[in-house]
Design goal:
This protein is α/β, with parallel strands linked by helices. The chain has one domain (2-225): Rossmann fold (3-Layer(aba) Sandwich). The chain has 9 helices and 6 strands; from the N terminus they run E-H-E-H-H-E-H-E-H-H-H-E-H-E-H. A 6-stranded parallel beta sheet has the order 2-1-3-4-5-6, sandwiched between helices.
Length: 227
Amino acid sequence: MKSEINIIIHGFGGSTAEIAYLADFLRAKGANVHVVALAGHGGTKRRLAQTTHSDWIASARDQVAKLADIYDKINLMGFSMGGLISAHLAAEFGAEKIGKIVFINTPIYFWNVKIIAGDVMRRDTERIAYYANSASRVGAKSAVEFLRILSRSKRLLARADMPMPASLILQCMDDESVRHKSAGYIKDRLGAAATLKYYEGGRHLIFTQNTALRDIVCGDIYSFINR
């Protein structure tokens, strides 16, 4: 068996493109990486609506299960909703397989109205177009499924009998989709096993932005998995 693999899971309504930079960064450092494509994602709104939150978790579980037969340890890295799915996988596979978890801009409280309103007031056409495009990719049925996985994840994190492996919680302060107090919520429930780090600036899709910050975030993740 090979020793370790790092599995990266993208977010709700997104695709592997939103985490490709992180995957490439880690591979360039010599890390073994697998990127999960969630069921129903990466295509049309209709295709997404044909799946449920249970399908999303199951599609990630199936990929992790296959790799669990090959590797001694698995590190999970979840971007946005991918962090919620990572928590479910850690609970299922246990400490004998899951080494570490990284939560990246993971929602508990979503939509930062203050930041969105500021973008609109400034007439930031690029950001307004991004909001419109995001809304057009997700229908009402899928939005309800997102709320269901969020509810299930809160209950999971609240369970006293559900220990989590060593975790790194990363949150951008200017994230328009996730309120930064989400990171504090996760930290409070994971306790001493978790390290929390906030970043000044940075939007939700941190890895698709050509900024110095995304390299800092990627570097922090690499340092964490190699401790």
